[in-house]
Amino acid sequence: MKEHETNTGWWTEKPGRVERPSSYASLGGGSLYRPGRGSVWINALLMIALTASFGFAILRLAAA
């Protein structure tokens, strides 16, 4: 048995394997896109407002 022939499966690094670019590389975004600090706070504020309005609507429905 050669050194690289182990029973660990197809995902292991094997000698002579051609490196191919990942098809998932564009999903992560990496360091190419970083929103500004203001954008993060606006998104947080929008989420809080959406949650509060949804909660208020549920309370109004429960009171009716």
Structure explained in plain terms:
The protein has a domain of 27 residues. The protein is built from two helices and no strands. The longest helix has 27 residues. The chain is elongated. The mean pLDDT is 77.
What labels describe this entry?
single chain, 64 residues, mainly alpha, 2 helices
Show the helix and strand layout.
Blueprint: H1 25-28, H2 37-63
Strand content: under 5%
Mean pLDDT: 77
Helix content: 40-55%
Order of helices and strands: HH
Main sheet record: none
Task: Please sum up the structure shown.
The chain has two helices and no strands.
